[in-house]
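Consider a protein example.
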Amino acid sequence: MSPLVSIIMGSTSDLPVMEKAAQLLNELHVPFEMNALSAHRTPEAVEDFAKKAGTRGIKVIIAAAGMAAALPGVIAANTTLPVIGVPVKGAVLDGMDALYSIIQMPPGIPVATVAINGAMNAAILAVQILALSNEDLAERFAAYKEGLKKKVVKANEELKEVKYQFKTN
């Protein structure tokens, strides 16, 4: 089974954020891989990865990075595959530096960008892209979305049982 999605992070310190993407892909039975590559520390490896990803069967790349956050853009510059960037919250600017670095791509080199630490939404976007040409995955994703709806309905019912002196519903 070859991976369809590649999760790339600038450092293994990003793993606690990116686990949410891995968990969702796993839940929906989407084959994926995970690697740590640095745009600044291993630039040749990043370029080689990006140029060869499509030939290995990868269809979507999720790239996470913090601080200067060059990784998603460098990957996008070296592939025709869709790249979804996940800005990772840092200690100094709370991830705003990474967010701005990822969303401010020049024309012709887009990186779809999710919220700071938004790895789950990155995985959802990857699944939506893949589901366009995979009916089984589309059905699993539709069931996942229905499950989200049911969780909210259940939570709302449970709130009815919470009592306060001045609560009227």
Residues 135-159 form the longest helix (25 residues). Helices lie at 15-27, 43-52, 71-77, 96-103, 119-131, 135-159.
